[in-house]
Specification:
CATH topology: Rossmann fold
Structural class: mainly alpha
Number of strands: 5
CATH architecture: 3-Layer(aba) Sandwich
Number of domains: 1
Largest sheet: 5 strands, parallel
Shape: globular
Oligomer: single chain
Radius of gyration: 22 Å
Strand content: 5-15%
Length: 449
Amino acid sequence: MVEKSFRKNPGWFRAVNSIWRESYFLGTKIKLEADDLLKAAKNRTGLTDPGKDFFDEPLKRLLTSIEQEANLHPIGRFIARERFISLLAIRLRAEYYFRKYPAILEQEIYPAWIIIGLQRTGTTKLQRLLAVDPDHRVIPSWEVINPVPLDLNYFENQQQKGKNRVFNTKDQESGIHSSPTFNPDRSSKLIYPDPGRIRIANASVKAVKFMSPGFFAIHPIDTMQPEEDILLLDVSFLSTTPEAMMHVPSYASWLESADQSSAYDYASKLLKLLQWVKPARRWILKTPHHLEFPHLIDKYFGPVRFIWPHRKIYESVPSFLSMVTYNRMIFSSDVDEKQVADHWVRKTGYMLEKALQYRFSGNNDQKFLDLRYDDLITDPMGQLANIYNMNGGISPEMTEAFQIHERENQTRKHGKHLYSLRDFGLTKADIDKHTSHYQQFISKKFDRG
């Protein structure tokens, strides 16, 4: 398990929460109400229209679940409020840009390689490796936190400074924004990355380090490295992010029965905005959340191939449970490890079943490429070669670039992550109960017995 010193929030963190909670009678309790959050987002941006396809039921259900079940401490309520306002503000700014530059939504989304392995199966390592290829478009942490520029006149201001040519009439007439084909003559590096959004992301990274020592041994966050695109789904308040951060079982239960189409539709629009700003040839996306919804990926994201890393389930599950425990401690002082395990072991089996059902229907199996976690760790170059065989093979130049990245990004920079099933009161039989079908599939796939 994670060392005991990692299992506790710092003393200052606990002290602030204690003092703040004691002052609730003075009216210091953070408010979490949908109308108030949207009003705050409108005030923050100066915008009023979240789009005709925005509906607030998911947010209201989430907020109700938080109030009734999550038992957030004062800092947790503050973080949640700021996060929800930020998500609503992203939506307001996105709608502003969609109206101002209709060419954004006229694009088609680039073809994508989508990494859909379970949490803790090497998906982060794989995505960061693939991000080395300049033909690939990823969403770095600073950008996925704020996928839309904060400054509503950002591009015009850059143009006035002579730092880009994105909005020249000649460029628009040539179809640069509406074509999904990479144009090497169009360089957006002068407006990308955005220093303002990077500063915000750096502050967030420092805050996590400050509040949760040891978290980086589980999942190292890097402002400039790619992060999960599940954060694009968060803008619609339809994702599994909340249940990884808080105890919100009623919201999580509702989410499994809710239609996720609107979230994936809107995420596709945000991807169009992102590729419009910084073009490439292919998207490299990653989140375990997509295991549950590959049919919506097919519908809204265009041509895709799924890359599915697999790890021994008895290793990946407790590793992820440990990560969830860390996440929840940032928001609540009442974190029950058994509660975490009961929720996420079942949820993991459910996600795997949804992915397998899709995979075994029609000709969908041919869209998948399977990798073993152990092979990815011991022979990353070999696994990259397998992936690039989907695209005609890997060049010697790219092989060298990948090797350099591997040497410069060794694992365990932030300490060793220790965990076991016993730490969560689990046995292998508890895992088997929900994942036996998946385990049989993997055993047959890799002929390991």
